[in-house]
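Question thread 4412

I'm putting together a teaching handout and wanted feedback from people who do this every day. The idea is simple: show students a protein as raw sequence, then show them the structure tokens that encode its fold, then repeat with a second protein so they can compare. Below is the first pair exactly as I plan to print it.
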Amino acid sequence: MEELRDRIFEYLQAHPKGKRKLDDIQEGLGLSSASEFAALSKELDTMEEEYQVFRSQENQYQTREQAAILEGRISINRAGMGFIDQEDRDSIKIDVKDQNTALNGDTVLVKCQPWQIYGSVIAVVKRAHEHVIGTFTRTEHGMQFIPDDIKLQSTLMRVKYAQDFTPIEGMKVVCSIEKYGIPLVINVTQTIGYKDDPGVDITSILLNHDIVAEFPQEVMDQVHTISQEVTESELTGRKNLTNENTVTIDGDDSKDFDDAVGVIKNEQGWLLKVSIADVSHYVTWNSPLDLEARKRGCSTYVTDRVIPMLPHELSNGICSLNPHVIRLTLTAEMQINPAGEIKDYQIYPSYIRSTERMTYNNVNKILDGDEEKQKQYAHLGTLFTDLAACADAIRGMRNKKGAINFASTEAEIKVDENGHPIDIEPKQRGHAEEIIEDCMIAANVTVANFLKWQEIPAIYRIHEEPTIKRIKNFVNMSEQMGHKLVVGKSDIYPNELQRYLDSVSDSEEYQVLSMMLLRCMQKARYDSHCIGHFGLAEEEYLHFTSPIRRYPDLVVHRMLRKYSFEQNTNLEERKNDEKLCQEYAEQSSVRERESSDAEFDCDDMKKAEYMQNHIGEKYEGIITGVQGYGFYVELPNTVEGLVRLSSLTDDYYSFNPDRMELVGQRRKRLYRLGMKVNVVVLDASKQESTIDFGLTGKNGKIMVVHKDQKLHRGTRKAHRHNGKEGRKGNGRSKKH
């Protein structure tokens, strides 16, 4: 049937202007027998049910493209208007009446001709919501259920619950969706706690993204069967690295150590060894542990807790490269030359005994000349200076190839024992953090190169080049700010963008320009095909170094063992594993987005909660986004708030979307990206995760408007963040 479906698609695409009725297709495919006609008719019905083909009023079959049907993720704003973002055209608008039961985040099929602005949802392909989190609140109409998701608060709902359940003011609950449509029918299935209880706020966000802390009993039963000590028999067939200086380098609070590094300086440069916990030895395919890890996709790092992909008994125990104990590992051994190139490599199963558990802080102190720390770790010799020299060479080569170094600052939110934020400051990043990042990237590149050229099934980490449209928009905006960026008409190369960033690095607008360019990038994702990583300027790249907290890394380890170490030659199994890798890649990409969204939602909520205690205080910040309804200002501590257009009472301001600026029509006062302004905190809402600023003191610039310069109002677009990739910490730094 797959072959017949392909032939149908080929026929339809070859006949764009007609002759696409059932009889036409039968004749065109040369199907003459009754059984062939029946098979064709059945396949077309199935394709129609699956929304692969569509039938016009004249019974002409059409592909999605011929029928002007687009697939996308619908975003619904607070006013109820839906939007479908498209790379090659402006966002499609969807009126409330045309949303066809779709909720915010659903994957939908939309009918919209290329020349149309508005479209209509014809089907929901995948639901983003299976449940709704909310709070019971007493109103003048009695006890009502208020969804946490502001975008759902205008949705008509019917709430059901058991007879013995009594809703109480402030009770936070989980409701399963029983029926989509108007009204949305939901049923209370779980009580989380009360909204002011410590930790309930973050738990609610996590559950809203299908992130659950507790593991099923069958998973814990399997964990309890796993020995917490390595046996002699498990060392067979592995290379012994226990006599070499090997260390883990992590944050002060880290408890799971999945990577260790060691280096030896030699005549050819450095012999770098990156050893990664052999999690796949313990988490076997399709076991309860594996199924749960696959479902979670990754660990999630939020303000006050970690929701691990694997139970702590594993991630902090036998799978953690704790100091002074033997652990099973997979090692990428790389010969790095003085220029930072990987000239040769080996990948093999091994076992290590970590010499020391090092922290970023202590390694930075050693490299900075702290005599006390140097004396404390003198038994490691020149390990850290050799590591630094090797990593610096690797970074230098990566930069030479054109890797893009975006300027980004992450927040470190400190909370008290009840989860209330007490301080927010930019996260510091030193030489030690860069060393580990460089070593991990080198190992990931090495393993990707090996798997690709050995044609072993794998999950790759891919990052496609940005679209010409997005880059052209950025080029225009940058030129308006006085910074020229020249790119090719068709292809874009990372070294062009990095040269541009270098050229503006000393300007006041650098932070904003870097952030805006980052938003132009496509999101990195997982795929079974090796497409390359644009941002890192690497032709082959994957994730190998964190199998404790990322499912794709675990799959890569399995494929290495099966087809390289164990030399499996079964072609049928290889073909099946290729399909599974694509399936796992797509699922892991979805789970990674949910995890990242949860992390950002928690940060935004805690920042708003923190600023509730600083209303009336004044700060200097920088404008990071300008829209028709106001502009966003980021403070030095990474907190971002909105200066609403309605608060600018000194003039009538017009929005110029081409120049990304607001201009007063009478006084010509200007507010644009990258400009420093003085603000006062007017309001903050933890519940809505919003912060409002007002201007204070002297702000803006008076511009000279030429006669031919027209100011106009533009459409409002969502102000979005495009997070950078990460390794540990809060889960968002170094996710290469």
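The second pair follows. I'd like the answer to focus on this one:
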Amino acid sequence: MTTLALYWLFLRAVLLSFSGFATVPLLREALVLDQALLTDSQLHAAIAISQASPGPLGMYLVIVGYFVTGLSGALAGALALMTPALLAIPIARLILRNKSSALQGACSGIVIASCALMVSTGLRLVPQATPTVAYLAIVVVGTAIVALTTIKPVWVITVAAAVGLVMR
């Protein structure tokens, strides 16, 4: 795969998702399943490395790009992440100038599609993230607590991590 093709793939994924991990299903299908340029392990490693690093959620694209074509792929990932930000200013001006319901509807549709992609990504990662029933119980209880109470997610994540470490 050429660097330009990788940039277009990353850009398409970023523009269709508007969220960090919502791009995972698109990239997994293209790079792991269709073209076998990446393994699931490499994709998961890229996500883990980006999570351990400061910065936006989508930074794993830079690491994926590096895994696929080296330094030029990392650059393609970084440019694909920056492109929407450069387009945001003219789009925001257009939305503020034309307060039409069509633009507001399009924005709502993008948010809904991003949420659906994130749920899809989460469901695909569940089997590896919860190898036992006990780990699945931690995820289900944590999700319920975040959804149904006013407890801050940081505390739920901290307690879930501690319980997971004790269970190990």
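Top answer:
Good format. For the second protein you could add a caption like this: The chain has a mean pLDDT of 86. Residues 3 and 63 are 14 Å apart (CA to CA).
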